[in-house]
Amino acid sequence: METNRADDYASVGFRGRIGFGERPAVVVVDVVRAYLEGGPLTDAEGRFEAARASADRVVEAARTGGHPVLFTTVRLAPGGADAGWFAVKVPGLSVFEEGSPYAAFPDAPAPREGEVVVSKQYASSFFGTSLAATLNARRVDTVIVLGFSTSGCVRATALDALQNGFRPIVVADASGDRDAATQEQNLFDLDSKYADVLSEADVVAHLLAHPSTHQEQPA
Predict the structure, then answer these.
(1) Is 65 an annotated catalytic residue?
(2) Sheet of strand 117-120, all strands in order from the earlier edge strand to the far edge
(3) Was domain 21-209 assigned CATH 3.40.50.1240?
(4) Please, which residues have CB within 8 angstroms of residue 7's CB and are 6 or more apart in sequence?
(5) For residue 98, which phi and psi values (nearest 5 degrees)?
(6) Mean pLDDT, 10 residues at a time, over the chain (219 residues)?
(7) Cα 40 from Cα 33, distance rounded (Å)
(8) Burial class of residue 53, CB neighbours in 10 A (0-12, 13-18, 19+)
(9) Residues 42, 100, 95, 123: is their CA dihedral positive or negative?
(10) Which of 9, 45, 58, 143 could be cross-linked to 14 through a Cys-Cys bond (beta carbons 3.0 to 4.6 Å apart)?
(11) Any residues with CB less than 8 A from the CB of 14 and at least 6 apart, and which?
(12) How many CA atoms lie within 13 A of 217 on its CB side?
């Protein structure tokens, strides 16, 4: 069924391939404790934990290959004062208010000294942030997106990566969602229209086989 659906989309002009460029960076989207370790947004089946473990392996491969790794997190003012109607639509965002332990990063993956952390209030890691400018300053051409959740912040970040002129790659294994059907549908749709969706193994292999030869600017 999946193959037939993919063939149907391809037959009318979807599902082209973008591919990697020469200067990839990994953007780790909102891999924070709210989704893990019994946090209020976690799932009973452990999908977020499995994605966290995969994300950690991708991050380590990027570091080994000398590629930039950037992290994002949601940081909200008390009462969601800076989140507008998003905070009204999703009251659960209160777990990201300043001072909440759920907004913290897990032990792994977590930012190392010198790695950029982008704070945001909305789904896309690009909206209202310095992310695009930071990536452009490093002459990044490929944004490898992973994290939480696939249907929300990962999807929005991948779409905005495309719209900001970057090659978007989404790591399927390293992106998590609460519901299996939601995960599958969003990955399929992203792969059909907005990004190349690849496995952890394929992304790790590329990062290790193509180490950076560029001198990165200090963060």
Answers:
(1) no
(2) 117-120, 69-74, 24-29, 142-148, 167-176, 196-198
(3) no
(4) none
(5) -50, 135
(6) 83 95 98 94 94 98 98 96 96 94 96 97 98 98 98 98 98 97 97 98 98 66
(7) 9
(8) middle
(9) negative
(10) 9
(11) 192, 193
(12) 10
Q: How many Å apart are CA 172 and CA 155, to the nearest integer? A: 11
Cα-atom radius of gyration of the chain, to the nearest Å?
A: 17
Q: Compute CA distances 61 → 3, 14, 24, 102, 141, whole Å.
A: 30, 30, 12, 26, 18
For 121, the token pair is 């209030």
Which of 31, 132, 153, 197 is catalytic? The answer is 153
pTM above threshold 0.90: yes
Torsion sign (Cα): 125, 167, 42, 70: negative
How many residues appear in the chain?
219
How far apart are alpha carbons 186 and 77 in whole angstroms? 30
Could you tell me the two tokens for 13?
Answer: 């002009």
